[in-house]
Amino acid sequence: MEGDCLSCMKYLMFLFNFFIFLGGACLLGLGIWVIVDPTGFREIVAANPLLFTGAYIMLAMGAMLFLLGFLGCCGAIRENKCLLLFFFMFILLIFLAELSAAILAFIFRENLTREFFTKELKKHYQRNNDTDVFSSTWNSVMITFACCGVNGPEDFEAIPHLPYSSLEKATPEACCQRELQSREGMFVNKEACLSGIERFQNRQGCYTVILNSFETYVYLAGALAIGVLAIELFAMIFAMCLFRGIQ
């Protein structure tokens, strides 16, 4: 009976580590995609030190989970106590790091409010000044998502024009409709847009557009994170049980 329990534990350990292996592969792929994606995310990540660091942390965590899942599978099948102990210690460190990151994300969630982004936009945005990282990043976001400001074009009314601009309206070029949503895309009617004709402008705020675009993915990421934490917890339990059961 004891041998049957040990065998069952071994295969359960293998199963959970296989899921960790897959989770690590997903995180690794997602991290690579965020860093190399050509549709504007690369500029956003590069411009924000927190996002830049987070992308590389996700990449590193994915690679580590990928490796540990592989080692855990090998340790379980071969019944190697050294591999199992190594796996347990590192998966414990990763578990604690992920738990800390989740707690910090919950604590600082107020920094992702509509009011916060509106305040930062009005304070730092310099319209078509592409030498300014903040302005260039916002322009990329507005062009990529076909949106304007945080809440809409009215966000730019308090932002001064460039000294040589004689236009009365406040709408920046990045809010103008394009035939293709990229920096290379041709304007539908740039002059009409900048003169204030609304049908040639992107009127919807970026906060709503991005929130709607990523709402499903946020819930999916949250569910995936909870699932990964649960799998890691069970994997540690099985690793210790298997470690103690191996003679």
From TrEMBL:
Its main location: membrane. It is found in: Membrane. The keyword Membrane applies. The keyword Cell membrane does not apply. CDD domains: uroplakin_I_like_LEL. It is a multi-pass membrane protein. InterPro entries: Tetraspanin/Peripherin, Tetraspanin_animals, Tetraspanin_CS, Tetraspanin_EC2_sf. Coiled coil: none annotated. The chain crosses the membrane at residues 12-36, 56-77, 84-108, 217-243. PROSITE patterns: TM4_1 (PS00421). It holds the Pfam family Tetraspanin. One of its GO terms (cellular component) is plasma membrane. Keywords: Glycoprotein, Membrane, Transmembrane, Transmembrane helix. Belongs to the tetraspanin (TM4SF) family. This is Tetraspanin. It comes from Daphoenositta chrysoptera (varied sittella).
